[in-house]
């Protein structure tokens, strides 16, 4: 068997890394790679539980964790995915005869047929969706003082409901919290003017009270619009400091957020928690980065597994439970009149 055939056979069992810029042994420059005197290739392909243990070890040692989240967190919270055929939301949008569901998020289409956008997004403010355990996991990282930032591609605001601090959050695609007139650019600091026009059975287009002619558009980033300055300014700095990057509920297909994982320093652990893998050239697919871990499966179950291994299980459960309480019930807990479990289970200690 030739050496090239041996290497081909080895690659069936091991993942190869890019050897440029790192030390290689003189006798086997193409098959053995070291960095900081540690052998980083060949590396055995790990089973899921083994990868999970590696991730837990790295989270325990981390000081600056960035979490990048996507639509998987929203759908796990019950928010419909407008891009999936067969869902009620997708079917409702068919009356607008879209070439593609994402046409709704183009400014030209919005100005021509704004009803479609408000039909799609009215549930964000008319229904009381609750954060998932994945949202509370991010909050737990903040409580542990290891969360550098949460970059979210979602516009539903569930991060705030989970208690994640505003300074720890970057809303890559804008938010549904504020709005702006598309004509005179008057800024509306809250979404009330939009809310009162969106009834379950009757959608009216919110018009600007100042110029009287412009549509009031929630500050959601449409295609071909610039991302918020906060995203640009912080992403250029944050990712250089990151020692663990956790990507949850996104397959990294939307630009420019999909290139963020490439901004972390060499040696940074990158974890993808999702039902499907990322596209070729991204996390766990280019086979050239030895610090990548893909944990497939249900994102909330996977996050719970990690918390269990980390010893954070009870803390996560407490955050989730308290997140389901009303403000009055939270006051009862804070005043030690009863406990969270008793309120949720309608019992007494």
Describe this structure in words.
The active site is at 173 (proton acceptor). One of its GO terms (cellular component) is nucleus. The chain has 349 residues and is an alpha/beta fold. It has helices at residues 3-13, 48-61, 71-76, 88-92, 107-112, 114-126, 133-143, 158-161, 192-195, 229-241, 299-310, 313-323, 327-334, 340-345, and strands at residues 14-15, 23-24, 33-35, 38-41, 43-44, 65-69, 147-152, 169-171, 174-181, 187-188, 198-199, 202-203, 216-220, 244-248, 269-274, 292-296. The protein folds into four domains: 1-45, no CATH class; 46-79 and 129-173 and 226-311, TPP-binding domain (Rossmann fold); 80-128 and 175-220, SIR2/SIRT2 'Small Domain'; 314-345, no CATH class. It has 14 helices and 16 strands. The strands form five sheets. A six-stranded parallel sheet has the order 8-7-6-14-15-16, sandwiched between helices. Strands 2-3-4 form a three-stranded antiparallel sheet, with no helix packed on it. A hairpin with a 5-residue loop joins strand 9 (174-181) and strand 10 (187-188). The protein is globular. The chain starts with a helix and ends with a helix.
Arithmetic mean pLDDT: 80
CATH class of the largest domain: Alpha Beta
Q: Can you summarize the main beta sheet?
A: 6 strands, parallel
Structure annotation, total helices: 14
The CATH topology of the largest domain = Rossmann fold
The count of DSSP E runs of length 2 or more, i.e. the number of strands, is: 16
In helices, the fraction of residues equals: 25-40%
Number of domains: 4
From the alpha-carbon coordinates, what is the Rg to the nearest angstrom? Answer: 23 Å
The SSE string, one letter per element, is HEEEEEHEHHHHHEHEEEHEEEHEEEHHHH
Contiguous uncertain segments of 5+ residues? 10-17, 19-31
Strand order of the largest sheet: 8-7-6-14-15-16
Beginning-to-end CA distance, first to last residue: 72 Å
CATH superfamily of the largest domain: TPP-binding domain
Strand content: 15-25%
| Reported CATH architecture of the largest domain | 3-Layer(aba) Sandwich
């Amino acid at each position: 068997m030739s050496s090239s055939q041996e290497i081909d056979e080895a690659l069936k069992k091991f993942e190869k890394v890019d050897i440029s810029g790192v030390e290689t042994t003189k006798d086997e420059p193409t098959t053995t790679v070291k960095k900081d005197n540690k052998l980083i290739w060949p590396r055995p392909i790990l089973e899921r539980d083994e990868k999970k243990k590696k991730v837990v070890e790295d989270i325990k040692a981390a000081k600056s964790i960035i979490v990048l989240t996507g639509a998987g967190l929203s759908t796990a919270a019950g928010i419909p995915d407008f891009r999936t055929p067969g869902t009620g939301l997708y079917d409702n949008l068919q009356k607008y005869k879209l070439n593609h569901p994402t046409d709704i998020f183009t400014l030209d289409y919005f100005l021509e047929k704004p009803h479609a956008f408000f039909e799609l997004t009215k549930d964000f403010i008319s229904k009381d969706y609750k954060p998932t355990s994945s949202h509370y996991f991010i909050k737990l990282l903040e409580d542990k003082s290891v969360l550098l930032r949460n970059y979210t591609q979602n516009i539903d605001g569930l991060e705030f409901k989970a208690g994640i601090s505003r300074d720890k959050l970057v809303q890559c695609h804008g938010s549904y919290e504020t709005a702006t007139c598309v004509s005179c650019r008057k800024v509306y600091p809250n979404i009330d003017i939009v809310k009162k026009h969106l009834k379950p059975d009757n959608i009216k287009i919110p018009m600007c009270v100042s110029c009287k002619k412009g549509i009031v558009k929630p500050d959601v980033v449409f295609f071909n619009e610039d991302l918020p300055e906060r995203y640009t300014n912080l992403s250029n700095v944050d990712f250089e400091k990151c020692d663990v990057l956790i990507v949850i509920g996104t397959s990294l297909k939307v630009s420019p957020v999909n290139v963020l994982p490439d901004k972390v320093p060499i040696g940074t652990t990158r974890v993808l928690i999702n039902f499907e893998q990322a596209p070729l050239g991204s996390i766990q697919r280019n086979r050239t980065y030895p610090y990548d871990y893909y944990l497939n499966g249900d994102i909330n179950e996977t996050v719970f597994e990690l918390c269990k291994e980390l010893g954070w299980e009870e803390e996560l459960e407490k955050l989730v439970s308290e997140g389901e309480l009303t403000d009055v019930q939270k006051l009862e807990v804070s005043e030690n009149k009863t406990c969270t479990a008793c309120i949720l289970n309608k019992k007494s200690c």
